[in-house]
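ESCALATION

Customer reports they have been waiting on this structure for their group meeting. Please prioritize. Original submission:
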Amino acid sequence: MGQRVTGLWPVLRQVTGSDKTAHGAAVRTAHTDAITARTETADRVVKSVCPFCAVGCGQDVYVKDEQVVQIEGDPDSPISRGRLCPKGSASKSLVTSPTRVTTVRYRRPGGTDWEDLPLATAMDMIADRVLQARHDGWQELDDRGRKLRRTMGFASLGGATLDNEENYLMKKLYTALGAVQIENQARI
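Update from on-call: job pushed to the front of the queue and completed.
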């Protein structure tokens, strides 16, 4: 029995067999032969971009039964050429984690408990508050009578996870609203 068990050890198969570099049969077992990669059983592959930083590494998102089963680097991406950093490699947990919040959570001023809100209600609340802050902080003229047409009622701090297009749209939106305090975390 001892001979049979030790004969199964990959190191012994490597030393005693023809696969001295352990790139073939020496490391294969019935268990490894029975394993199938999640990428092989996926129904489809969706091209995406990693959300973690502004580099924009390409990702292949493997989907089976409308569920994300694997995320890997996109070898066709001219930016990352199939490579992902540790955060990008672990990004599957962003969409599959059981602790992921999938509802709008709101805690009223002075409140101690969170409540769920419909997305439309939350968006209306945000729009109302932006418009009110714009109105309350509006400066039409400076103290010498020069036109300013700006608000100091709110500011924007973009994050490094936003791509160029998102940052461009944010800059245009906040400028159109009259904000002058528009910055990006990537420059700080």
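Sent to customer with the following note: The chain has a mean pLDDT of 87.
Escalation resolved.
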